[in-house]
């Protein structure tokens, strides 16, 4: 792998490549370190701990395209735009754009030394790297509120179906003796982000047709929303019939993890159906 990279870059360009690497590390040290910190400390960004290493592994697995050729002019343009974006976002102290500029710079360097064809070969690692960046707080708040209301409505409807006395006020579910607040943390945005990322990864690895990949990605959204509604229902059900302690602390967190595993199983089942559909479609096309 190392020899191939040296041959592709050219021995005369090794020194400029090393200087570029050092400049990249200095310029993007802050966005990278804060990104890793957020992966480790913020639950809504925790999926980056999986996506980041997986993106690196997939890039290594795909290797170099034998037909790729360096395109310095295009790469330089992309790189300059990424550096300008880094500078502007640094002045505005806007972390999301700063981190996006880091991925853009990686794309620019790849084009400069290996060409656009190599970027296309590494489309999945670059996509996963982008998805590992937490969304801005303004976006998460705008998405979380309607998800909170949807989860509250679904949970209240399921509780009513189970003949539990319920009164719904926005994102507050009132049952006899207790009130359940569907907060931003319970909106399901975390699981939705993680499930969409997993759908892209699973679709790229196991599915071949664009139609089935898109279908898997689109189905990941209702799966995450429905499972979160079931989580709200289960919390209310256990609080009403078992104990109010079931709605907070360790038990509440455990419910969330277990139901997220259920959503992953549902996504895997849909992906399995997609694989069977592709085999059947390809078989008919060949026949």
The helical percent reads over 70%
Shape: globular
Count the beta strands: 3
Unreliable residue runs: none
Beta-strand share of residues: under 5%
Q: Given the helix and strand composition, which structural class is it?
A: mainly alpha
Give the overall average pLDDT. Answer: 85
Can you summarize the main beta sheet?
3 strands, antiparallel
Side by side, the strands of the main sheet go 1-2-3
End-to-end distance: 40 Å
Radius of gyration (Å)? 23 Å
Provide a quick synopsis of the model.
The protein has 287 residues and is mainly alpha-helical.
How would you characterize the overall build of this protein?
The protein has 287 residues and is mostly helical. It has 12 helices and 3 strands, in the order H-H-H-H-H-H-H-H-H-E-E-E-H-H-H. The protein has helices at 2-9, 14-27, 29-41, 48-62, 72-92, 95-114, 116-121, 123-131, 137-161, 189-206, 210-241, 249-286; strands at residues 167-169, 172-175, 178-181.
What structural keywords apply?
mainly alpha; three-stranded antiparallel beta sheet; globular
Topology diagram in text:
Elements: H1 2-9, H2 14-27, H3 29-41, H4 48-62, H5 72-92, H6 95-114, H7 116-121, H8 123-131, H9 137-161, E1 167-169, E2 172-175, E3 178-181, H10 189-206, H11 210-241, H12 249-286
Antiparallel strand pairs: 1-2, 2-3
């Amino acid at each position: 792998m190392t020899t191939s990279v040296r041959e592709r870059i050219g021995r005369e360009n090794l020194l400029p490549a090393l200087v570029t690497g050092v400049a990249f590390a200095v310029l993007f040290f802050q966005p990278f370190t804060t990104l890793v910190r957020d992966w480790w400390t913020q639950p809504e960004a925790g999926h980056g701990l999986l996506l980041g290493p997986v993106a690196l592994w997939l890039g290594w697995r795909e290797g170099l395209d034998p037909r790729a050729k360096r395109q310095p002019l295009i790469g330089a343009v992309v790189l300059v735009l990424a550096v300008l974006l880094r500078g502007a976002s640094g002045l505005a102290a806007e972390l999301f754009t700063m981190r996006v500029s880091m991925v853009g710079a990686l794309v620019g360097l790849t084009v400069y030394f290996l060409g656009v064809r190599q970027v296309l070969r590494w489309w999945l690692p670059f996509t996963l790297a982008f998805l590992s960046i937490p969304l801005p707080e303004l976006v998460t708040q705008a998405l979380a509120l309607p998800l909170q209301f949807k989860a509250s409505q679904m949970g209240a409807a399921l509780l009513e179906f189970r003949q539990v006395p319920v009164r719904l006020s926005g994102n507050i579910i009132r049952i006899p003796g207790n009130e359940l607040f569907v907060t931003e943390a319970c909106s399901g945005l975390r699981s939705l982000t993680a499930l969409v990322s997993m759908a892209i990864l699973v679709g790229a690895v196991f599915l071949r047709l664009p139609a089935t990949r898109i279908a898997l990605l689109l189905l990941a959204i209702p799966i995450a929303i429905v499972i979160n509604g079931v989580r709200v229902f289960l919390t209310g059900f256990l609080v009403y019939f078992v104990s109010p302690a079931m709605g907070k602390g360790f038990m509440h967190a455990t419910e969330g993890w277990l139901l997220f595993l259920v959503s992953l199983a549902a996504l895997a089942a849909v992906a399995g159906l997609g694989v069977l559909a592709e085999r059947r479609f390809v078989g008919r096309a060949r026949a």
